[in-house]
Amino acid sequence: MDKKRTSSIKRRYDRISAIYDFLDAPMELMAFKKHRETVLNKVTGSVLEIGVGTGKNIAFYPDDATITAIDFSEKMLERAKKRAAKLQKNVTLYHMDVQQLEFEDNVFDTAFSTCVFCSVPDPIEGLEEVKRVLKPGGQFILLEHVLSERRFMQPLMNLFNPVTVRLWGANINRKTCENVKKAGFKIINETNLSLDIVKLIVAEA
Ligand SMILES: C[S@@+](CC[C@H](N)C(=O)[O-])C[C@H]1O[C@@H](n2cnc3c(N)ncnc32)[C@H](O)[C@@H]1O
Fold first, then answer.
1. Are 204 and 135 in contact (CB under 8 A)?
2. Which of 17, 79, 127, 172 is deepest in the core (most CB within 10 A)?
3. Quick check: 199 and 183 in contact, CB under 8 A?
4. Which domain holds residue 172?
5. What is the CATH number of the domain that holds 188?
6. What is the distance between the alpha carbons of residues 77 and 55, in angstroms, rounded to a whole number?
7. How many domains does the chain have?
């Protein structure tokens, strides 16, 4: 793990935590909000949320699931804690880095992430950790924005990537489907939700 890069991205999320929901509002309304419930409808058993952020998914946690959620930004996590208390949802929150999960092997039935692997400093290392803590055959559901394959879009996304990384630590040119496969998952389903940029990916450990 690249410790310097990791602490720089983590600090960026700590710094923007108070205004994160405001900054993210356009993307949330255009691309993510309507799909959160779809993701949470798919989770079963013991569930791990990666990069819980300010806790935007918490409202959709099913009452019968056992949810554990992690984030490496303490300040984002504080907001998720407040949201969980307000919504009276039963979730165990940990300050943890997905690149170095502190869970035993094969403990979760389902893992999910929404808009997280754009900013994990070493995404393949993080994805391999998710695979390790999932039971064999366990499901991993990702709602993520990725690099477009379109001829005009792709160079633009590559061009503006350094700007988005500098502003809020998120890459807009990640090849997350490829990374999921490289980490050893089998992709069961890949659905384009907004152009070929926002995707719902269902993978099996
Ligand atoms: C763009 S925000 C998305 C938050 C939330 N999932 C949502 O849908 O609103 C990305 C989140 O992933 C967290 N994150 C990024 N890299 C991480 C890592 N290596 N380990 C744990 N959390 C990480 C950030 O701190 C941040 O809270």
1. no
2. 127
3. no
4. 3-204
5. 3.40.50.150
6. 8
7. 1
Substitution site in 73, 146, 171, 200 for ligand 1 pocket (most atoms within 8 Å of beta carbon) = 73
Per the DSSP assignment, residues forming a β-bridge with 156 are none
Q: Which two tokens stand for residue 190?
A: 């890949």
User: What pLDDT score was predicted for residue 27?
Assistant: 86
Q: Verify whether ligand 1 is closer than 6 Å to residue 98 (CB atom).
A: yes
Whether residue 168 is predicted with pLDDT greater than 80 in this model: the reply is no
User: What is the pLDDT at residue 113?
Assistant: 98
Q: What global pTM score does this model have?
A: 0.95
- Kindly report, residue by residue over 23-60, the tens digit of the pLDDT: 889 889 988 999 999 999 999 999 999 999 999 999 99
For residue 77, which of 62, 55, 47, 58 has the smallest C-alpha distance?
55
pLDDT confidence band for 2 (50 / 70 / 90): confident
Give the span between the Cα atoms of 31 and 135, in whole angstroms: 30
Amino acid identity at 35 = H
* Residue 169 banded pLDDT, cuts 50, 70, 90: confident
Residue 24 DSSP code:
H
Residue 115 beta carbon below 6 angstroms from any ligand 1 atom: yes
Burial class (CB in 10 A: 0-12, 13-18, 19+), 142: buried
Determine the 3-state secondary structure of 143 from DSSP.
Answer: strand
